[in-house]
Amino acid sequence: xxxxxxxxxxxxxxxxxxxxxxxxxxxxxxxxxxxxxxxxxxxxxxxxxxxxxxxxxxxxxxxxxxxxxxxxxxxxxxxxxxxxxxxxxxxxxxxxxxxxxxxxxxxxxxxxxxxxxxxxxxxxxxxxxxxxxxxxxxxxxxxxxxxxxxxxxxxxxxxxxxxxxxxxxxxxxxxxxxxxxxxxxxxxxxxxxxxxxxxxxxxxxxxxxxxxxxxxxxxxxxxxxxxxxxxxxxxxxxxxxxxxxxxxxxxxxxxxxxxxxxxxxxxxxxxxxxxxxxxxxxxxxxxxxxxxxxxxxxxxxxxxxxxxxxxxxxxxxxxxxxxxxxxxxxxxxxxxxxxxxxxxxxxxxxxxxxxxxxxxxxxxxxxxxxxxxxxxxxxxxxxxxxxxxxxxxxxxxxxxxxxxxxxxxxxxxxxxxxxxxxxxxxxxxxxxxxxxxxxxxxxxxxxxxxxxxxxxxxxxxxxxxxxxxxxxxxxxxxxxxxxxxxxxxxxxxxxxxxxxxxxxxxxxxxxxxxxxxxxxxxxxxxxxxxxxxxxxxxxxxxxxxxxxxxxxxxxxxxxxxxxxxxxxxxxxxxxxxxxxxxxxxxxxxxxxxxxxxxxxxxxxx
Length: 605
Known about the structure:
Strand content: 15-25%
Low-confidence stretches: 1-6, 292-296, 310-322, 433-447
Radius of gyration: 30 Å
Number of domains: 4
Structural class: alpha/beta
CATH topology of the largest domain: Beta-Lactamase
Strand order of the largest sheet: 2-1-5-4-3
């Protein structure tokens, strides 16, 4: 039998396994710590110890970067081990076997019997402790000998596995494993599988797209020439130097990455200043990687300079108070946007409010109006996605009356002809508004009409219209001022529950803070409304939160996706997080529920 440091003879391991299965207990040195941890996971997942129940998942896709990189390496390994009783196995990140190359007929028959074959899952959650699944679960090389396998039918095997990480993105893409007879001396099996993994990783680097390589090279070049903060990102990759990790707090990192992604996607290369959640100001210069065309398509490198000295964690000043009626929030980004809107209103300047749906554009415009001129009219006209003629007549009528303040929402929903007609109507109304100033210089906002438009993002089709609005204020999404969420949550609870009878527990707040809130403040408001409908008093617990709060998603899901996510979360809650039971009740395999949990960002902790 092969020797592994710290391992006991197989008969002692077999006795320890039987003790564990019978009583749920075993301790080093009865069994290696890594193996014991895997046995505990296998038991938690209700893996059968006396039979193989590996589910068939799907036919492997041969045209993937991993397959194109690994198959030539595994083919060469098979040729070099033609006279050895060894099988080379490739699996994806979920543990589904993609390829198997075996050099021994008897071993081939055993592997067929235990369903270690293409298309079947060898994740730990499917078959328990094994080289491939345990390497994937632990994120490091794993070596499993005979009765160290959780399932008895694998006790004739030695198996070794090494996880495969993409050399640029750092993502887990799969695992490579070697399996052989337990009775043979396979003491070099671990070294061989590590060498094979290194060869596949090098092949993945060669397979990587030109854009990915350019991003890596640009990042390394920036790091060599700068002692400051350097970030690099594209749709799949985020790289960050030690200076960024040590100087920036987590919230600041997320805000910088969010802004950088938007700047690079827009193809802008000029330096911008960003107010960070901790109160620091950063100057950020974004540069597309290599020769990315269109600009930003291949991601880019971001160099950051802090314009104020970094504070120690916990040494931030007390937050400023929000003085606008009906609004809460003291984050630097939110306060800055609020101040800009107030300044525009006080100057009588027509304003464009830009931001993601639900970020609070209308709420902010209404709050500024209520603070400055609460007795004046405040009209809101939503631009329709079709049939805009009646809406345009309403706009012209409101402009003709020239009374109060007017917000035109969703102007980016208008077609080109309607946008042109709206611009013409506003142009006609604008001279009168501009001339309506008092002798002492008071702004038109005091005596004339103030107009604001809201949109999600600017486009070339809106150029003519936006020329009439001297100022554009971009409201940050909630994920960029997430430090305001506890205050917002308490504010909403106060509005919806009677006499403050409902509070939020720290455990529930932790889940709320972890969400990326693609629907922003409006989504939070709807979540709190649903909670209050079910719980009227006491403390909100994690189980009171709707399924969307158990996920970390950067996008709003389609209706069918949301239904599927909600069903998975509910089953996980019903089974106390037992993924095997949840999968069974939903009629899906454990491999599928793991994939779906990863896809939707579901966590039960």
